[in-house]
Amino acid sequence: MSSAAAVNRLVVFGDVCGSGAMGLEAKRRMRDAMYGAFAEAYAAVGVEVDRIHQEDRGDGILAALDPGVPPTLMVGTWIDTLFQSLREHNAGSAHRMRLRIGMNAGPVLDDGRGLVGRAVDLAARLCDSPTARRTMELAPGSDLLLVVSDWLYTNVVAEGGRYVEPETYRSARVRIKETDEQAWFHIPRLPAPPLPDDRPGAAHAPGAKTGGGPVRGDGPPPSAPPRIGTQINARGDVASFENNVFHGEVTGIRKHRGAAAPDTDGAA
Q1: Which residues share a beta bridge with 241?
Q2: I need a labelling partner for 5 at 20 to 30 A (CA). Which of 140, 166, 179, 227 fits?
Q3: Among 18, 21, 53, 24, which Cα is nearest to 38's?
Q4: Closest C-alpha among 112, 130, 111 to residue 196
Q5: CA distance 186 to 194
């Protein structure tokens, strides 16, 4: 089949977090719930089965939508319904299901065996990237993470729409295999996803700032601390304390701010 048969389609790749630790029966229930949540979300946007190419991925699903399906519905009502379906399932289940979703758009070819194209590869890698996995680790109370390509964010998400909240997305670089792309991360009901700080030596703590302002991060980079000097009166000798470093040799120390108070009791 010629590549000329490729059609621009929205691609969705979903994957269940932590499924490798599940037993066989738990995985069966998980798969039932996953397919049920996807079906409910498609029904909410009026997408019928014949408008979806869907492939099983064991603990995930790969899908490509009919070109006529508005992508705004998928990043809005579809995601919101999927989120609500997960919440409902998890409220009554002993095995909590959490999903990572990667979305992208571009030329996709169905060669009779499955879907082929860079748009498919990128959607899968956005979903499975170390950044996406780490973000879910940093948001243990969240059931759903959406990662969209830069193209999809710029051309669809940023335009807004019903249940579309572009101000709650944050960007990060995704590097996996041959992929090195800017992507956008969103967790429903959070003002911003807790993206990991991938700078060398950075602490990966929940809620850590990613920097870059209101669009590219969740706060400005921290400024350098001011140089603060404090005078130390050490029984007649004077030493200085600046930037957490003592200068001078002292024994008994009395710390004064402003004018020195008289030493009446001899205590240090």
Answers
A1: 230, 246
A2: 179
A3: 53
A4: 130
A5: 9
